[in-house]
Every structure is written in structure tokens, then in C-alpha cells.
UniProtKB/TrEMBL annotation:
Organism this protein belongs to: Agrocybe chaxingu
EC number: 2.5.1.18
Boundaries of every GST C-terminal domain copy: 88-210
UniProt-listed Pfam families: GST_C, GST_N
Protein name, per record: glutathione transferase
GO cellular component term, pick one: cytoplasm
Signal peptide as annotated in the record: none
Keywords: Transferase
GO BP field: glutathione metabolic process
Family of the protein in this entry: Belongs to the GST superfamily.
Gene Ontology molecular function, alphabetical: glutathione binding; glutathione transferase activity
Catalysed reactions, as listed in the record: RX + glutathione = an S-substituted glutathione + a halide anion + H(+)
Leading EC class: transferase
Amino acid sequence: MVIKVYGAPTAWRHLVICVLEEKKVPYEYILVDIFNGEQRSPEFLEKQPFGQTPYIDDDGFILYESRAIAIYIATKYADQGTPLIPSDIKAQALFHQAASIEVSHFNGPAFAATVEKLYKPVFRGLECDQAVFEKNVAELGLKLDVYERILEKQRYIAGDFYGKELTLADLYHLPYGRLMGIAGTDLMTSRPNVNRCVVRILSGVVILNK
């Protein structure tokens, strides 16, 4: 039985599909109609109690939260496709450090800025609060200044123990990293080391280069 991915056209759906493609895992994508409230139905909430997408069904095993799904797939299919999680203990520690950096320093302001500039106008029909958008862009800019210094010394955010391959820590940045460009910012491209890392990641991701 192939893994079933229940998702909607939101940023994190792309991460799950990206990981499945990198690991060469067959899957079936099932579109969730969030515009008509399918995610709030009793049937959906039984699988994902927060009413969010995506979640997966792996032969009856239900799992939600995109990062958890990504780790599950990368671990279950460790021997095929792109490794994504290093096995060396020091490299693995640096991987977890990089994953924590994404959660603690990148995701918050990137998500808030994206909500204002893209989700509110497109999905909710609401006006963007430009002040809130600019505040979060400024905060993210300060965080990316630190990324710029880190990436001056290494190819990927997870470090050079495992610097020749993509890791999940890199892929975790893709959902909102790509949307920041669509939102009209130059946060990623204006920082040479960050930009080089982004280009390297995007050029190596299977699904983006089909």
C-alpha cells in the first residue's frame, strides 16, 4: 500500500511531498478541500484533531505535523534515495541543531510575514497589515544576518560533517523560504551566502527539477 498524503495547497504540503520524492517513496496525494471546510469535518478531525493539513496514512498508521512526517519517512526509508538524516553521531547532533534553528529563528517571522502578505489576501479575502508584515520581515532579516555568517564557513546550515548532501534541516526552510520571494522580499537573494545555499538546495531537490 502506498502512503496517502492528505493535503491542501499550503506551504507544508510541499515539504512532505518533497521528502517522499527524495526518498523515492510511492505515494498518493489526496486533495483536502479547505475552502469548503473539509478539514473541519468529523471524519477529518478524527485523523487530525487540529483540523490542519497535511497528514499521512501509511497502511493505517496516521501521522500529522510535517516535520514529524518528514523524520518518519526519512527514517523508515533510510536505505533508499537521498539520506536526509546523517548517521554519524556528531553529524546527527549538528542536524538536530540546524533543525532547531529553523524552528526557533526562521519559521516564526517567516510564517507571520507570509500570513500577512499572502494567506490573508488570497485565502481569507482580508487586507495585509503592512506594519505587521514589515516588522516580521525586519526580524527575519536579523536572523538571516546570522545565517549569512554561519554559511560563510559551511555549505549547509547543518554543517560540514554532512555538508555534501541535503538534510531535512535544509528542506524545513523551503516552505516559507520560497514564499518570502513570492511575497516580494529579497531577504534570501540579497545575502550572498544564504543565496548560494538556497540555490544549491533548490538545484538538488528532486521534485523541483523534474
